[in-house]
Amino acid sequence: MILEKDSATTLKENSDKPLYRQVADQLLALIAEQKLAPGAQLPPARKIQKYFNVSAITVEAGIRLLVKEGYLRRRPRLGTFICDNPPDIEHERIMSENTVGMIIKVIFCHIAPADIYWSLVWDELVTAAPFLNCDKSFAILNSDTLSDDELQRYAGGCDGVVLCGYIPLDLVKLLERKKIPFVMIGGLNSGAPPPPYADSVQHDEVHRAYISTRHLLELGHRNIVCVVGPSGSRLAEEIISGYRQAMLEYKIPREQHYVENIEAHTVEEGQQAGLRILTRVPRPTAVNACDDRLAIGVYKAATQMGFRIPEHLSLIGCGGLEIGKVITPELTTMPSHPRRSAKIALEKLFARIFDPNHKCSATILRFDELEIGGSTRFIRGEDTNS
């Protein structure tokens, strides 16, 4: 029988690994030994709790970690099951052993690491199995040019670098010239494609903005405002491009393309943008915001002015953040996958470090489906105004 007490492994209270990680590792060992086969249901949480003599919270944290890492999947009202195609556990184990003592630096370029998206990227980087045994540090870079001395301060003495955000080409060139393995999560701040010697992971922002805007157009909206920023950034340029592409497909002339620029992805910036948008004549019937926090800000402005979502204004965000699920109606949004981006980036970085035949490549994450909430609806005749 699986998880019988006489076969238990005692968890170590004084271990460097937290108890929930030890629970996860023990379950991984059972999966690796095929004692928990692909497709099989995980024993009840209370049995796991009793087996390891830990709290229900610890068990839940361990299971949640394995769900995130792709070993388990949850089926509502049925239970938790071993994934049919879980990651190669032996490969993960070897990688973890080979990375002991390695020094990896994470550099956030022209972004705030405390931002929700990038904090999730960081969380994935520091908890991913191959990265657990590395010495990790992060730095913030807001300059576009770097001298060799500055590069030494940011990336010297390390085995690899993860670049996040809007990355200066000079930094990429310096890392390549110094033969320091690196991977990019995001793109160059110039808007140019990554060079052929760079590994990268990024979202197709043009397509995401196109899909969101097209959804509003298919609902009958024609007076649509795009809330986007920071002003002049590559991200803003790509989102505006996708917005305009959809508008032009529906024969909306460029003089009727309305872009509301903001400086930061915050609820406060969204609220101020919403107040400006909702006092326009004619008042728009829909808003496509490039971030869920901006969309929530527009929602607050609409409520403040006595308008209802979606009766008076359809609203779309971007990011799939939890904040969009706590309002009523729930926010329609385009998802992001920060953890998936970080996981792919680490695979690329360690492949570059260990595999002499590794070929650099750009992975573009493309999203074709919105997460539909109640914040959008078909426009009706009485919704139009002048």
Task: Describe what this molecule looks like in 3D.
The protein is α/β, with parallel strands linked by helices. A hairpin with a 3-residue loop joins strand 1 and strand 2 (79-82). Helix 5 packs across helix 12 and helix 10 (267-277) packs across helix 11 (292-304). The model has no long low-confidence stretch (mean pLDDT 86). The chain has three domains: 5-87, Orthogonal Bundle (Arc Repressor Mutant, subunit A); 100-203 and 338-365, Response regulator (Rossmann fold); 205-336 and 370-383, Response regulator (Rossmann fold). The protein has twelve helices and 13 strands. The strands form three sheets. Strands 4-3-5-6-7-13 form a six-stranded parallel sheet, sandwiched between helices. It has a five-stranded parallel sheet with strand order 9-8-10-11-12, sandwiched between helices. The chain has a two-stranded antiparallel sheet with strand order 1-2. It is 38% helix and 18% strand. The longest helix has 17 residues, at 338-354.
Walk me through the topology.
Blueprint: H1 19-32, H2 45-52, H3 56-68, E1 72-75, E2 79-82, H4 89-98, E3 103-109, H5 116-127, E4 135-141, H6 148-155, E5 160-167, H7 169-177, E6 182-188, E7 199-203, H8 205-218, E8 224-228, H9 234-249, E9 258-261, H10 267-277, E10 286-289, H11 292-304, E11 314-319, E12 332-335, H12 338-354, E13 362-365
Parallel strand pairs: 3-4, 3-5, 5-6, 6-7, 7-13, 8-9, 8-10, 10-11, 11-12
Antiparallel strand pairs: 1-2
Helix pairs in contact: 1-3, 2-3, 5-12, 8-9, 10-11
